[in-house]
């Protein structure tokens, strides 16, 4: 019964379907994904997509290693982390979903002075045996090789059936796309992600108080649906501003900029992103 309860929490959209099916049909043990071990002084982010596990953040250059047992499934589920060693804060700040290309992000914060050793065992709570049934609600009728751009249900829900190219580039061919510039300023308390797709900008407060005094404007063309490099020019801010995800077909050409303010209270940030 406890396994079924966890599954229902992870899958709010299909709760009625799970209740209507006998418990045994959906009961499945947690799937071990990988074990990560490394040294952290202040903070790292562990980004997971499939069998790729990348260490990012300010301490990414410190020694670390990962042993992968299984890839993160492209299906509904929830990441769970067992901290086997380490004194700081560890949490999943981004769970996998169709919208983010089934990517997960784990954050490790070492809150004391000096470095410490961490060891994490990471699991996926889901039902691998019924993955095709569950995925069919998001990915119905499309090939995984084109799952970012062909018939996405997510795009229809988020963008009300719009054509990204027509909205972002005024009907032009992306192969001849020009450059674009995002000018952004705001007041950040702890950790915020800024997501750019075409001319659309979204904000996700990962930790701390909500954003305040936000001003953003895109000059020129929106982020094109082709491979480009997003570069940053800092104008103001006492913490860190980093591009943690460059646009590519796997993430539906979405760039992610992460603003991290490590001190107490909020502070003003101002930057320019170019592509």
List how many beta strands DSSP finds: 16
Mean pLDDT: 75
Look at the helices and sheets and give the structural class: mainly beta
Number of helical segments? 6
Share in β-strands = 35-45%
* Shape label: globular
Protein model, in words:
By secondary structure, the chain is mainly β. The protein folds into 2 domains: 2-131, no CATH class; 179-274, no CATH class. The chain contains 6 helices and 16 strands. The chain has helices at 2-10, 15-20, 23-26, 131-139, 153-159, 164-169, and strands spanning 31-40, 43-49, 52-56, 64-68, 78-85, 89-94, 103-109, 116-125, 180-188, 191-197, 200-207, 212-220, 231-236, 240-245, 255-260, 267-274. The chain has a 4-stranded antiparallel β-sheet. It has a 4-stranded antiparallel β-sheet with strand order 3-2-7-6, with no helix packed on it. Strands 12-9-16-13 form a 4-stranded antiparallel β-sheet, with no helix packed on it. The longest helix has 9 residues, at 2-10. The chain is globular, with a radius of gyration of 20 Å. The chain starts with a helix and ends with a strand. Mean pLDDT is 75; it is low at 1-29 and 128-177.
